[in-house]
Amino acid sequence: MKIAVCLKLVPATTADIRVAPGGREPLLAGVEMAVSFYDEYALATALRLRAAFPGSIIHALSVGGGECVRCLQHALALGVDHALHIQSPGADARAAARLAAAALRPLTPDLVLCGRQAMDDDLWFFPGALAEWLDWPHISAVFSLDVAPGKSAVRCRRRFEGGEQTIEAVWPVVVSCDRGPHEPPIPTLKGRLASRKMPLPAMTPAELGLAAADLEPAMAPTHYAPPTQRTPKKMLAGAPAEAAAELLRLLRHEEGVLE
């Protein structure tokens, strides 16, 4: 089985991200970066499948600037077989999907795994766009994936409001992964050190047959702003009747929600 995993480096969920004056862009200099949360589950799924089907090969790829090297070294440290950096700084989700599709076609993977969404923009755009460029089926937000021995198909379970769905698809297929029962592995120190010595090939859009016009952004943010600060909580003391009266006063005169 040939498996490909698409990875993205994003600001860590605990990072303190500030906005540049005028709201032009987020200030990411010095911000801690990490592999996108759901991409880690895609990577864990790939490693679990390879263990279940000896002889399988895992390709990891990432689209973007030089920061992508950290993503791919992380994957190599966990034991993926090959990694590819597609050099396209600033590529949006649409352009990244088109570049990834161009790189994946000659690899002829049976299964492409992605995170259900990137943790920086929350678009849920990349996996569906990738499937469209490849003209493959796409199953989204999958938390459990199995491949029956001897069958060229996957059986996926995904959650939806009020229940679960079980969906089967014949290879090749794009699957975007949700949080599942298997926690992502942590690379060992030996794996980290070894990953820095492994070859990390890179390709440009031109080498993939794509021009700048092919990668024009589908949309662009016009303004960034920090989240609205929450109003501090107020604790009301006293007897129930006094607290109720004070609550009504606050709602009417300070919050303006009662007339």
Q: What does this protein structure show overall?
A:
By secondary structure, the chain is an alpha/beta fold. The chain folds into two domains: 2-215, Rossmann fold, CATH 3.40.50.620; 229-259, no CATH class. It has six helices and 13 strands. It has helices spanning 37-52, 68-78, 93-104, 126-134, 189-195, 240-254; strands spanning 2-7, 9-11, 18-19, 26-27, 33-35, 57-64, 82-87, 111-115, 138-147, 153-160, 163-170, 173-177, 202-203. The strands form three sheets. Strands 11-10-9-12-8-1-6-7-13 form a nine-stranded mixed sheet, sandwiched between helices. The protein has a two-stranded antiparallel sheet with strand order 2-5. Strands 3-4 form a two-stranded antiparallel sheet. The protein is globular.
Poorly predicted spans:
none
CATH superfamily of the largest domain: HUPs
Summing up helix and strand content along with how strands pair, one would put the structural category as alpha/beta
Number of strand segments: 13
- The gyration radius over C-alpha positions equals 23 Å
What's the helix count? 6
CATH class of the largest domain: Alpha Beta
Beta-sheet strand percentage? 25-35%
One letter per element, helices H and strands E, the order comes to: EEEEEHEHEHEHEEEEHEH
The largest sheet is: 9 strands, mixed
Compute the separation of the termini in Å.
Answer: 67 Å
**What general outline do the C-alpha atoms trace?**
globular
What's the CATH topology name of the largest domain? Rossmann fold
Which percent bin holds the helix content? 25-40%
Mean pLDDT: 89
Which strand order spans the largest sheet, edge to edge or round the barrel? 11-10-9-12-8-1-6-7-13
Q: Would you identify the CATH architecture of the largest domain?
A: 3-Layer(aba) Sandwich
Number of domains: 2
